[in-house]
């Protein structure tokens, strides 16, 4: 599914430094959070060459590698590259390079793209990254997401699944309620082609049907999958969590995007949302749209009554329930992955760290959150041989932090540098990515 060619001479957008990293470099005296278990390895040397982690050893040892570059990791913390598992490319202006700069500056080294709109070609993007023609995170993509209108007959299913297979998408994404016979046929044909199916839940069917997919996107889906009574019934929920756990499915909560939606319904919160610091990385046009009353949530939900209840308290209640349910899933060790949905004020890269904080607020430990952003996604994507933990032989996709994220997950924001396929992107480089994105607005 993925190949990485490292020893090529490269052309990179807007960057002067050579990208293919062949020289050996080390991070000296660093504290490693390897994420394969909840431990911290102090005072280590990590040797990186040809894009791989060659050696992890106590820093007191003499190194047998000639080092072209040494990075002082004293008092710093090294974590695996982060996974944004629910990404969308929403804005054409600035190209996908704009989003990649935001993602890399935030330590995101793997992305799962969740849709293909008609002006996009994510297979070409994935190929360019794999060939090192485009600097970007490891890239996985679904095709255009499928809705009931796309899948009316058996013939539609045959044609669309064959198309997705031939194009080479990594996943099939369902984003709608489908008739039962259609849904089951999609799962069956996708399995014949060996393409995983994931997406939103099937709200009209029992839970078990949705659990046949590889992952469920948005914990919000469980709000609608369960009835009002069921959401308040602790025995029902306990059994549902058990069933979810047994199925082996992976859940991507995307709490941050629901928080944004709720905030759009309240004038005070909305005013703050518009002023949030990272809004400076939104395109002018995009910000103008989301900050206005054309914002679809202001338009369609603000001040509305849904099922006899005002939308704002209703959604606030949903959000509390979603956090509680996320906690229940975590307590039962249901595999989870971090994703943010990236639209509106949910700005790519930054939004993943906001999601971490919502997960922490819901009751996940910092370690559980790091696992959901590294180890679990690597297992899910089939890249566990080379990604997801800090161990010898793995790809050198790593993030160096100034503060310990195991103490508070907000410390994942203290990024000193990122190793992308072994290439060191220091704070200056990351800041220049951010400046380039900001400058698109002036
Ligand atoms: Zn999505």
Automatic annotation (TrEMBL):
Transmembrane feature ranges: none
Q: Which residues form the Amidohydrolase-related domain?
A: 77-424
Q: Which residues belong to the signal peptide in this entry?
A: 1-22
Keyword RNA-binding on entry: no
Q: Does the keyword Electron transport apply?
A: no
Sorted alphabetically, the keyword list is:
Signal
**PANTHER family named among the record's database cross-references:** ALPHA-D-RIBOSE 1-METHYLPHOSPHONATE 5-TRIPHOSPHATE DIPHOSPHATASE (PTHR43135)
Q: What is this protein called?
A: Amidohydrolase family protein
């Amino acid at each position: 599914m993925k190949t990485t060619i490292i020893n090529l001479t490269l052309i990179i957008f807007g960057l002067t430094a050579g990208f293919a990293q062949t020289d050996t470099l080390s991070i000296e005296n660093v504290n490693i959070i390897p994420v394969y278990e909840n431990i911290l390895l102090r005072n280590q040397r990590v040797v990186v060459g040809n894009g791989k982690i060659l050696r992890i050893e106590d820093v007191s040892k003499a190194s047998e590698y000639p080092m072209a570059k040494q990075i002082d990791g004293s008092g710093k913390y090294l974590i695996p590259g982060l996974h944004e598992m629910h990404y969308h490319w929403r804005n054409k202006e600035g190209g996908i390079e704009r989003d990649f700069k935001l993602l890399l500056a935030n330590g995101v080294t793997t992305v799962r793209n969740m849709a293909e709109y008609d002006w996009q070609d994510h297979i070409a993007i994935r190929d360019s990254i794999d060939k090192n023609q485009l600097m970007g995170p490891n890239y996985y993509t679904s095709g255009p997401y499928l809705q009931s209108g796309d899948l009316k007959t058996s013939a539609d299913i045959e044609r669309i699944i064959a198309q997705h297979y031939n194009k080479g998408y990594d996943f099939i994404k369902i984003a709608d309620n489908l008739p039962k016979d259609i849904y089951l046929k999609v799962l069956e044909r996708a399995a014949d082609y060996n393409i995983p199916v994931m997406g939103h839940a099937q709200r009209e069917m029992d839970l078990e049907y949705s659990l046949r997919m590889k992952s469920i996107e948005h914990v919000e889906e469980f709000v609608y999958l369960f009835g009002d009574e069921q959401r308040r019934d602790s025995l029902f929920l306990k059994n549902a969590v058990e069933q979810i756990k047994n199925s082996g499915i992976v859940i991507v909560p995307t709490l941050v995007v629901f928080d944004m939606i709720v905030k759009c319904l309240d004038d005070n919160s909305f005013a703050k949302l518009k002023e949030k610091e990272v809004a400076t990385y939104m395109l002018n046009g995009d910000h103008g749209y989301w900050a206005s009353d054309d914002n679809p949530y202001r338009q369609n939900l603000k001040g509305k009554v849904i099922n006899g209840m005002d939308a704002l308290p209703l959604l606030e209640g949903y959000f509390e329930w979603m956090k509680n349910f996320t906690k229940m899933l975590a307590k039962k060790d249901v595999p989870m992955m971090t994703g943010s949905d990236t639209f509106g004020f949910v700005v790519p890269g930054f939004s993943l760290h906001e999601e971490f904080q919502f997960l922490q607020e819901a009751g996940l430990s910092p370690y559980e959150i790091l696992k959901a952003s590294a180890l679990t996604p690597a297992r899910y994507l089939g890249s566990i041989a080379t990604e997801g933990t800090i161990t010898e032989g793995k790809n050198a996709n790593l993030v160096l932090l100034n503060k310990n994220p195991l103490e508070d997950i907000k410390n994942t924001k203290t990024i000193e540098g990122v190793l992308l396929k072994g290439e060191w992107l220091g704070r200056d480089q990351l800041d220049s990515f951010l400046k380039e994105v900001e400058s698109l607005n002036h």
